[in-house]
């Protein structure tokens, strides 16, 4: 498809994290939601027909040697399964050569917000100004998952996989509490390094440093597990839409390493139009 591409360790760790997330809920839930992870020609395909959102239906790890026939088949499989919203992530180094093909041959369109991969080493962080986040208990699982659903505009069906991360050996889920109420929650996966996945704070408790505390807590827990490499990904800021997650990661020593655009069906949106 192209000539060369850098090694994208962050995207590989992200793929491993999401594969483990898909395996977290029980078999009945996995079957009901159609959760499936495939390795296709060196790419990772996340497929969840029961969760109408591109975060759970996407292609990671597109590389120069990937077969156009395989990519076309993946897109057709999404369509066959009734997945109306999906992403094919395309690194900036590949997009100039692939954009015409993605548009003309597959009928895909570039989503308005690109993703940025960020990385850091194993340096310890200084103290956070906010009260430290704590490990989530099973009693916090549903409430923490519900907070993430609202913050990321995910459909209710995504709640079960997220709640199942609490207590899972490969994941750290941390929360900040106001009394007994979960007001901030974040999760991270530890495999070949630590991957900081979703983190969110209730609107009523923003601007108190809780989001930064979630980052600190997950880095600290990763270090305690022996991680010396950390990665995360977030949407880049676009006009009229700030991206505080990016700023908090940079403050914690993360640095942007790679940018990916996301291609999907015409008119694709992120919003689940939650009432």
Q: What structural keywords apply?
A:
275 residues, alpha+beta, 2 domains, 12 strands
Question: Any overview of this molecule?
Answer:
This protein is α+β, with helices and mostly antiparallel strands and 275 residues long. It folds into 2 domains: 9-115, no CATH class; 120-258, Aminopeptidase. The protein contains 8 helices and 12 strands. Strands 1, 2, 3, 4, 5, 6, 7, 8, 9, 10, 11 and 12 form a 12-stranded mixed beta sheet that branches.
Class of the largest domain, according to the CATH hierarchy? Answer: Alpha Beta
How many helices? The count is 8
Q: Strand pairing plus helix content: what structural class?
A: alpha+beta
Number of domain units: 2
Share in helix: 25-40%
* CATH fold description of the largest domain: Aminopeptidase
Principal-axis shape equals: globular
- CA(first)-CA(last) distance: 42 Å
Fourth CATH level, the homologous superfamily of the largest domain: Gcn5-related N-acetyltransferase (GNAT)
Biggest sheet descriptor = 12 strands, mixed
Order of helices and strands: HHEEEHEHEEEHHEEEHEHE
CATH architecture of the largest domain: 3-Layer(aba) Sandwich
The parts where pLDDT drops under 50 for at least 5 residues are: 1-6
Strand content: 25-35%
Rounded mean pLDDT is 92
Total number of strands: 12
Alpha carbon gyration radius:
18 Å
């Amino acid at each position: 498809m192209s000539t060369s591409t850098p090694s994208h360790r962050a995207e590989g760790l992200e793929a491993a994290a999401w594969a483990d997330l898909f395996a977290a809920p029980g078999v009945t839930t996995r079957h009901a939601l159609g959760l499936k992870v495939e390795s296709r020609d060196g790419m990772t395909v996340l497929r969840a027909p029961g969760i109408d959102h591109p975060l759970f239906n996407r292609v990671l790890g597109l590389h120069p040697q990937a077969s156009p026939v395989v990519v076309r088949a993946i897109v057709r499989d999404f369509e066959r399964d009734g997945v109306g919203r999906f992403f094919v992530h395309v690194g900036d180094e590949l997009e100039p050569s692939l954009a015409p093909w993605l548009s003309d041959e597959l009928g895909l369109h570039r989503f308005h917000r690109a993703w940025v991969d960020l990385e850091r080493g194993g340096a310890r962080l200084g103290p956070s100004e906010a009260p430290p986040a704590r490990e989530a208990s099973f009693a916090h699982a549903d409430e923490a998952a519900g907070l993430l659903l609202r913050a990321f505009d995910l459909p209710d069906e995504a709640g079960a996989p997220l709640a199942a991360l609490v207590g899972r050996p490969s994941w750290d889920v941390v929360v900040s509490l106001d009394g007994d109420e979960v007001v901030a929650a974040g999760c991270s996966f530890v495999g070949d390094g630590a991957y900081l996945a979703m983190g969110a704070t209730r609107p009523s408790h923003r601007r108190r440093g809780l989001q930064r505390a979630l980052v600190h807590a997950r880095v600290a827990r990763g270090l305690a597990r022996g991680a010396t490499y950390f990665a995360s990904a977030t949407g880049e800021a676009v006009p009229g839409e700030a991206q505080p997650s990016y700023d908090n990661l940079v403050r914690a020593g993360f640095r942007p390493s790679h940018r990916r655009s996301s291609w999907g069906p015409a008119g694709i949106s992120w919003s689940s139009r939650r009432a």
